Amino acid sequence: MDITLESAKDKVMSTEQEILGLLPQDKVLSRFAHDTSPLMPCSGEQRKWTGDAEAELAPGVDRDVILDEVLESMSAKDGWTVDDGKTAGGKRRIDLLHSDGTHLLVSFRDSPETLRVSGYSACFDFPEYQYGEEY
Fold it and tell me: Of 73, 105, 74, whose CA–CA distance to 88 is shortest?
């Protein structure tokens, strides 16, 4: 299957929303996702789309239980490699890599309590790229 800007963007955004959907909804105070962003270079005229989504949560959620659920859910999906690791600051982070090159990171931020999903799509041909534009 050929990857396009639209399919790459859809995969990142739908996976972000799927992960946020695992949260206990009674603990979610707000949600936000970027639906446009600059493109990152790959090779030649290829680019990848970057995205992120966040959910602010009520204080006191069990971060490990939530990250364990993300780990379990994504490990069961075809094409995904899941790594339970740490950020540079030593906090737990789930690293999700799809066989097509889509790459997402799932971790918590403090103040306010926020689950963040960020990453980028697989590479796709995009010769019409304009520097500085968001897609």
Answer: 105
